[in-house]
């Protein structure tokens, strides 16, 4: 087996993604490789989306999602759009089905280049998010937050989009808050036994939100697709918006539809930056010659 695997460096609204083509090989991207790649300023990323052969022959490609600290994530909306664009560039295929550790996902590339991903159904039960203690109603929960001196950041909406999310509602501009300071504290709050992605959200219209996210295991990002879905369903659940909203993240807008069949569909762009090959064990990488200016 060749040691090097092809990759495409991409982004989804500024969420930095490496799409790694691991098809036809039995190995996986090691946590050490992820950490080494992220330490290189030219490759710094939020998630690696590793495309593997189907786990059962004849079924969907298996996508492994690896955070920049080498840990696994169950969902990555922006990364899935990057995977779709990378695979769509190989063929005429427009409709895709993938398997992740959180289940089966369907996606589609539209004629205008925008990509929709069916992110599945939101989970509101406290054990499925998961939370460390029982809450009957997770649409807003009261948290004991000791060292954080921001009184508004106490009663988030919590939800799983495959991965755990907490959405803190604010009335002021989301940029008024020091998410880089609160994010790591809230991510590791004992109520979240598997930690959580932490977002600050402001409802700006009955069909619009602004959102900033501190991602579990990746830190501040310019976009988090699963957080946009989590914020959209949470806003609708507490009666602040309808079920079709535009969620504007630092990288730009995402359209989120919470369908009547309970599935959440996210639509947005993906962007290719450059390609190369890398060693999935060590993270050593080379940029493709034709991409070098
Ligand atoms: N960027 C992603 C979410 C990434 C996963 C997250 N860091 C986690 O560990 O749950 C997205 O676009 O959804």
Can you describe what's shown?
With 293 residues, the chain is an alpha+beta fold. The protein folds into 2 domains: 5-120 and 270-291, Diaminopimelate Epimerase, Chain A, domain 1; 157-262, Diaminopimelate Epimerase, Chain A, domain 1 (Roll). The protein is 15% helix and 36% strand. It is built from 4 helices and 18 strands. The protein has helices at 31-39, 77-88, 179-187, 225-237, and strands at 5-12, 15-21, 47-52, 61-67, 72-73, 95-100, 103-109, 115-118, 157-160, 164-169, 197-205, 208-215, 219-221, 244-249, 252-258, 264-268, 271-278, 285-287. It has an 18-stranded mixed beta sheet that branches. The chain starts with a strand and ends in a 6-residue tail after the last strand. The mean pLDDT is 95. It binds ligand LBFN2T5F.
Features:
single chain, 293 residues, Diaminopimelate Epimerase, Chain A, domain 1, 18-stranded mixed sheet, 4 helices, 18 strands, 36% strand, globular, binds ligand LBFN2T5F, EC 5.1.1.7, DAP_epimerase_DapF, cytoplasm, amino-acid biosynthesis
